[in-house]
Design goal:
Elements lengths: L4 H9 L3 H24 L4 H8 L10 H4 L7 H8 L1 H13 L2 H9 L20 H16 L12 H10 L7 H14 L11 H10 L8
Helix pairs in contact: 2-3, 2-8, 2-10, 3-7, 6-7, 7-8, 8-9
């Protein structure tokens, strides 16, 4: 039977506590990235899968390091940063999706060249990788509470942080489009956990073929 992105994730996650923790974060990043990609006209299934599997490489990172409450030492930081490369290899070898693998690899590159794993600069980074970077960061700030977080940011606070880091960490044009999109959609609190018919209708009205991502 042909392996799908979903079966790959489930096969790995079922025996891996780290990926179980990141399961719903991965789904939310997929939804947000798909909406943003469709907004700017670059959506395709490689983007959807890349966003869904962006953290698959964390299978190679110990939970004690990934969820460490304090600052990481240099070795621990290197281990965490390796997840982009590991994810790239997994997606290439297990799914044969070389283009998708590039997006997984790129999702922690920074616009100013200070990211990882390749320290790419600006448009050297795939636009899909840049999209996932913005959406991953937004979800981590506003939704993805982990053991070391005592509070999450409001949407307004997260928007301000994205703007503050525009043209250093993030593609500033994507940040502006992303913020405008979420304001336009009036993204509700707990949007992922709670069925909100009004919000779903707005998505269906704004996005062509939303059944691809919902």
């Amino acid at each position: 039977m042909k392996r799908t992105p979903e079966s790959l994730f489930e096969n790995i996650a079922q025996d891996n506590e780290v990926l179980q923790i990141f399961r719903h974060h991965s789904m939310r990043v997929m939804y947000l990235s798909s909406m943003l990609a469709k907004k700017i006209g670059v959506y395709d299934d490689d983007l959807r899968v890349g966003a869904f599997l962006h953290d698959i490489g964390k299978i190679g990172v110990a939970k004690e390091i990934l969820l460490k409450p304090g600052k990481l030492n240099t070795i621990e930081k290197t281990v965490v940063e390796s997840h982009c490369h590991i994810g790239n290899v997994i997606v290439r070898k297990e799914l044969g999706k070389t283009r998708t693998a590039e997006f997984v690899r790129d999702h922690h590159e920074n616009w100013d060249g200070t990211g990882y794993p390749r320290r790419l600069v600006g448009e050297e980074i795939s636009v899909q990788g840049r999209i996932i970077r913005v959406c991953d960061s937004f979800d981590t700030m506003t939704y993805d509470l982990r053991n070391y977080k005592s509070a999450k940011m409001s949407y307004h606070e997260a928007f301000q942080e994205l703007k503050r880091c525009s043209w250093t960490q993030f593609d500033g044009n994507l940040v502006e489009t992303f913020i405008s999109l979420l304001i336009e959609l009036e993204l509700p609190e707990s949007w992922y956990d709670t069925y909100n018919s009004t919000f779903i209708e707005k998505i269906y009205n704004k996005i062509e073929h939303p059944e691809d991502i919902l």
